[in-house]
Amino acid sequence: MTDTLHLDQRQRAMLAEMGVRVWSPLSETPVMDAAVVEIEQPHGFVAAGELATQAIADAIKPAPILIQRPDGIDQMDWSTLHTTVSGCQACSLCSSRQHTVFGVGAPAADGQAPQVDWLIVGETPGEEEDLQGKPFVGQVGQLLDNMLGAMKLSRTGARTAEGGGVYIANVLKCRPPGNRNPKPEEVAQCLPYLERQVALLKPKMIVAMGRFAVQALLRDSVPELEGTPYGKLRGRVYQYQNVPVVVTYHPAYVLRNLSEKAKVWADLCLAMAHLKGSE
Ligand code: SF4
Q1: How many CB atoms lie within 10 A of CB 154?
Q2: Is the CB of 187 under 6 A from ligand 1?
Q3: Which pLDDT belongs to residue 32?
């Protein structure tokens, strides 16, 4: 990565932590790994045994009674939306969750959506997220924090006159058991909550992390999305609710494929450059 961003020592250290090398074009030759590998699991740390056990448990468990999602999500204010998600039983994931995971981000006035330039959209809560009720925790969260730090952002920092402010949310607000992939009907049930979050947050840039985030956000605007290899979706700026969207790899995937860190940094640079150019 050529250092055209005038990074200070701390940001360089964060990039080093991410495994991204910063070099001067006069002194070093870039090293980029060109391999593209598909994402198979949103949180790929599940032992096969756990999945099998969970599949049996799912099979013998009686189907929960689903309570229909309330009408008028598209009119809800932030606190009503948050309360509604906390009590949601609109899909079977409500029966196995410990907590709903609404999102975290910049500080906000009571009951109001935080003012942010950036929205990070992940896929589904994992085990730790489910326990803590927060998205992107543990090692995955640490890597995301390092990425944000390298962008001179933080997950809880307020938006200033120079911009900034981040909110982090997932497509699904409840954890699929055993970290299995979300089912289409679960995504369909949950997506109106994210749609409303976007409408209330009014971010200037969305970073979509992972296949299920990309499918949820771009399914109406990108033809043949499902058949397109994930890596080929990178490197362009899309639109969702008139907000620019950049696609990158999920930090959980990057932790398993460390050579992809440079690509994530390239994607984040694309997002920063686009945001700067549109101001
Ligand atoms: S995943 Fe979404 S739709 Fe399903 S119960 Fe949780 S909040 Fe409701």
Answers
A1: 15
A2: no
A3: 35
Asked if 250 and 123 count as a contact pair (C-beta separation under 8 A), the reply is yes
Query: With 70 as the cut, is the pLDDT of residue 223 above it?
Result: yes
Q: What is the average pLDDT value for the chain, to the nearest integer?
A: 85
Q: Is the minimum distance from the CB of 174 to ligand 1 under 6 angstroms?
A: yes
pTM of the model: 0.81
Q: In degrees rounded to 5, what are phi and psi of residue 121?
A: -115, 115
Given the CA of residue 97, which atom of ligand 1 is nearest to it? 6
Q: Can you tell me the mean pLDDT for 188-214?
A: 97
Neighbour-count burial of 98, counting CB atoms closer than 10 A to its CB (0-12 exposed, 13-18 middle, 19+ buried): middle
Are the C-beta atoms of 106 and 166 separated by less than 8 Å?
A: yes
Domain 48-277 has CATH 3.40.470.10: yes
Token pair in block for residue 275: 């945001």
Mutate to test the pocket of ligand 1, among 189, 191, 193, 197 (most ligand atoms within 8 A of CB): 189
Residue 16 Cα distances to 54, 209, 254, angstroms: 38, 21, 14
Q: Which residues are CB-contacts of 277 (< 8 A; sequence separation ≥ 6)?
A: none
- CB–CB of 114/165 below 8 Å? yes
Residue 241 has pLDDT above 50, yes or no: yes
Q: Which residue has tokens 């907590």?
A: 99
Instruction: Supply angle C-alpha 199, 161, 235, rounded to 5.
Output: 55
Q: Which residue has the higher pLDDT, 159 or 49?
A: 159
Per DSSP bridges, beta strands 166-170 and 104-105 are antiparallel
Alpha-carbon span 181 to 40, nearest angstrom: 8
Distance, CA of 136 to CA of 128 (rounded, Å): 9
Looking at ligand 1, which residue's alpha carbon is closest to its atom 4? 91
Q: How far is CA 240 from CA 206, 214, 270, in A?
A: 8, 10, 17
